[in-house]
Specification:
The chain contains 11 helices and 23 strands. With 512 residues, the chain is of the alpha+beta class. A hairpin with a 5-residue loop joins strand 9 and strand 10.
């Protein structure tokens, strides 16, 4: 943050007002005989130069006039001449200088001064000097930068500094995320990447009249292959006035790893998903208890409404680890991060179909896992294509050895600052499907619910049958379960993935 020199300079300036202010106000009369007044009436001593000439000219063109401070109008930063303000700003660090530029229009233009920002830029990114010597190329570069300050538009070096800082953070994250876990196909050090970037998440609630409410996340749960982010509080806007909800990742523009990220400093927003709140209807409701009803909006958003008031109780976002950091940091406030173009992988035997696939599936809530399973060597033949999908069977009805129990009492935990509860038969499902090369092929994290169903063709089980269904633009998941009353537990007796043919053709460059 600020070094404090600006505050000392301000005190010193106030002490000089009574001694050296020319009669009649700023710019009234020159000081000592034979000395020409500098900008704004200040005497320019031999060898003195003024930084920010272009900025001063801009202020002069705007016709700024400053009155002499009096007892009724004491000296303030706003009433100071631009030269003094530029001198004060020159002692600020980058974060404080950006915050200062948000005070008003005049401070914004002054805080864009290229002379100040090229000093900050040069200090942060100057080439390392060995043996106290600088080669001629480095000297030429520095001199050329100084000569080009006045040729650049105001704020040029501020933009260059921010771009360079973000590029360095991006490079550091790429190095951290490079090692991949062969077990899940996901980066090994995702948690470390979250710490390095200072990443957090916000939701932006937008009213129909354009007003916005930005809410910081309250709670965060990091699971095996996903992250769950929770918002709750007492100051929600009325649901009837809201139109959309934006989910954004937020990172500090300048990250000091030795300190926790500041919530008040300049931050970068990266849009992850946009949701239409008019879709909170009966068709998207997945569960309820005596206090709330919960709704699922794709991708991965859970919205809880109070039953009595029909107002927001909490919001829960579920994000899969696959490309999590990139989506949360590399987009903009209005445009999501766009994945790099995919290069089709070689399908060594397109007539054979899919083979050598691996599935990792979790079902959990509130840090409690009901299922954590890995299935290897999955395959399907080319003939298993129906209605635009390829059928990939993971657990079969007729093979009892493949059936799996869910551990514990299944329910989706929720809480606010006042109440908490658990909605039965609901949970969060994470799917990570790897192709034959161990690359993530289809990844998702979403709330799901178990609904009563009619048993499919297969053996008759002694117990009520339930199903879990999930659908998005890339595929479908269908799970069938049986409730065993004697042991009071659910058993998964069927698990089938349906993969979109268009997704497979895009991935392998085939034409199924």
């Amino acid at each position: 943050m600020a070094t404090g020199r600006g505050r000392l300079l301000l005190q010193h300036w106030r002490g000089l007002l009574a001694l050296h202010w020319p009669p009649g106000g700023v710019g009234a009369a020159p000081g000592l005989a034979g000395e020409a007044p500098g900008p704004a009436g200040f005497r320019k001593r031999p060898g003195t130069s003024y930084a920010g000439t272009a900025t001063l000219k801009q202020c002069a063109r705007r016709g700024r006039h400053y009155k002499q401070p009096s007892a009724d109008h004491p000296a303030s930063l706003e009433s100071m001449p631009s030269e003094i303000l530029l001198k004060i700003f020159s002692y600020l660090d980058a974060v404080t200088l950006l915050c200062t530029g948000c005070v008003n229009r005049r401070f914004y233009h002054l805080a864009n001064d290229n002379f100040i920002w090229i000093r900050i830029y040069s200090t942060a990114f100057s080439p390392k000097i060995s043996n106290w010597q600088v080669n001629s190329a480095e000297k030429t570069t520095v001199s050329m930068n100084l000569l080009s300050v006045e040729d650049k538009e105001a704020g040029y070096w501020k933009k260059e500094y921010i771009a360079k800082q973000r590029a360095s953070v991006k490079a550091a994250l790429a190095r951290v995320l490079k090692p991949v876990n062969p077990y899940t196909g996901l980066p090994v050090k995702t948690k470390e990447a979250l710490r390095i970037s200072g990443l957090g998440w916000v939701i932006i609630l937008k009213e129909k009249n354009g007003k916005e409410y930005i809410m910081q996340h309250i709670d965060l749960l990091i699971n095996d292959s996903s992250v769950t982010i929770i918002w709750y509080g007492r100051n929600w806007p009325q649901l009837a006035t809201l139109s959309t909800l934006d989910l954004c990742g937020v990172t500090p523009v300048f990250r000091d790893r030795s300190k926790p990220p500041s919530k008040n400093g300049p931050r970068w927003l990266s849009l992850i998903a946009k949701y239409n709140l008019s879709n909170l209807t009966e068709s998207t409701m997945i569960g309820w208890d005596r206090l709330i009803r919960i709704f699922c909006l794709h991708p991965g958003l859970l919205v809880g409404l109070w039953k009595r008031e029909e107002e927001l109780a909490f919001v829960m976002a579920n994000l899969h680890f696959h490309h999590l950091v990139e989506k949360s940091t590399l987009g903009s406030a209005t445009v999501p991060y766009e994945l790099p173009p995919h290069t089709p992988l070689l399908d060594d035997n397109p007539e054979y179909g899919l083979h050598g696939y691996q599935l990792h599936v979790d079902m959990h809530s509130g840090g409690v896992f009901y299922l954590c399973g890995t299935f290897r060597n999955l395959f399907t033949k080319k003939g298993s294509i129906e209605n635009g999908y390829v059928k990939l069977v993971v657990i079969r009805f007729k093979n009892n050895t493949e059936h799996l129990p869910l551990i514990g009492k299944v329910g989706l935990s929720w809480r606010t600052d006042v109440f908490s509860g658990c909605i039965k038969s609901c949970s969060i499902m994470d799917i990570t499907l790897l192709d034959e090369y161990g690359k993530p092929f289809w990844c998702l994290s979403s709330p799901v619910c178990m609904r009563s169903s009619v048993p499919s063709d297969g053996p008759n089980f002694l117990g009520q049958t339930y199903c879990v269904d999930y659908v998005d633009s890339e595929g479908k998941v269908h799970v069938e379960l049986v409730w065993i009353k004697e042991t009071e537990e659910y058993f998964i007796v069927s698990l089938v993935l349906y993969l979109k043919i268009a997704k497979i053709n895009h991935w392998f460059g085939t034409a199924y």
